[in-house]
């Protein structure tokens, strides 16, 4: 019971299921195209929508076409569907051209969904206080969007990328001057719209404290710890 309540409290879903509503969604993404590999999933989704809109899914041929699309859409067929339709020939997954970031507002929205502003406090034998502070801005995406994530280095003029064993790739900016001179000005000009803007505000406060060398004294480090403890997953709703 408790775990189900936690799940409800920590996640929110926006869902559109009616054909009328989905027509609005499709019109939006036709006008404002996705630039990650998710564009392929959208193309397949749009084909599935067309089959249902035209009632083709009510015929055997149309229903099997729907199953074939499902086989290559997102996570593919469930175990039950794979057993029920063992002879399914998956549809051809569309090829998506190499992406190019041309709109900074897109990057702000992308960060709202996939980014993290992180304040790390760690043990340091070289610090008089025994602890030090490190900042990082991170964007994580599936390895299938490796080209897009690596292009952020050129787009922002800073950062680096690293692969993760989970099949993801991270874009990271950890250099203090790059965070201060590039990351903060970017998101001040193109503000985040979600709750993550609160994390950015806290992150910016820590940057100011570090720029003033406050992290090198106990009072300043204690203040940074307070900020750290209210950020990201620790933030109360």
Distance between the termini: 20 Å
Structural class: alpha+beta
Largest sheet: 4 strands, antiparallel
Estimate the helix proportion, in percent.
40-55%
The total count of strands amounts to: 4
SSE sequence, one letter per element: HHHHHHEEHEEHHH
Shape descriptor reads elongated
Number of helices: 10
Low-pLDDT regions: 1-9
Secondary structure elements and their pairing?
Blueprint: H1 2-10, H2 19-31, H3 38-53, H4 60-70, H5 79-84, H6 104-114, E1 115-123, E2 131-142, H7 146-156, E3 160-163, E4 168-173, H8 176-189, H9 196-211, H10 218-228
Antiparallel strand pairs: 1-2, 2-4, 3-4
Helix pairs in contact: 2-3, 3-4, 9-10
Description of the structure:
There is one protein chain. This protein is of the alpha+beta class and 237 residues long. The protein contains 10 helices and 4 strands; from the N terminus they run H-H-H-H-H-H-E-E-H-E-E-H-H-H. Strand 3 and strand 4 form a beta hairpin. Helix 2 (19-31) runs antiparallel to helix 3, helix 3 (38-53) packs antiparallel against helix 4 (60-70) and helix 9 (196-211) packs antiparallel against helix 10. It is elongated and about 75 Å long.
Features:
237 residues, alpha+beta, disordered N terminus
Brief digest:
This protein has helices at residues 2-10, 19-31, 38-53, 60-70, 79-84, 104-114, 146-156, 176-189, 196-211, 218-228; strands at residues 115-123, 131-142, 160-163, 168-173.
């Amino acid at each position: 019971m408790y775990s189900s309540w936690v799940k409800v409290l920590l996640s929110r879903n926006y869902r559109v299921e009616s054909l009328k509503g989905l027509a609005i969604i499709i019109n939006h993404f036709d006008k404002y195209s996705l630039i990650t590999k998710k564009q392929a999933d959208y193309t397949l989704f749009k084909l599935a929508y067309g089959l249902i809109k035209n009632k083709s899914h009510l015929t055997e041929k149309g229903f099997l076409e729907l199953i074939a699309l499902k086989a290559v859409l997102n996570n593919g067929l469930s175990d039950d569907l794979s057993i029920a339709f063992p002879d399914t020939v998956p549809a051809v997954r569309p090829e998506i051209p190499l992406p190019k970031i041309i709109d900074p507002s897109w990057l702000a929205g992308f960060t709202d969904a996939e980014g993290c502003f992180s304040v790390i406090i760690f043990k340091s034998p070289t610090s008089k206080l025994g602890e030090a502070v490190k900042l990082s801005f991170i964007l994580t995406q599936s390895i299938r969007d490796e080209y897009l994530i690596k292009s952020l280095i050129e787009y922002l003029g800073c950062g680096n990328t690293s692969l993760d064993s989970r099949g993801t790739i991270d874009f990271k900016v950890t250099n203090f001057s790059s965070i201060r001179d590039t990351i903060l000005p970017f998101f001040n000009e193109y503000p985040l719209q979600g709750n993550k803007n609160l994390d950015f505000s806290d992150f910016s406060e820590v940057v100011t404290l570090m720029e003033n060398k406050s992290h090198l004294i106990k009072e300043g480090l204690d203040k940074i710890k307070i900020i750290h403890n209210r950020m990201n997953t620790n933030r109360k709703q």
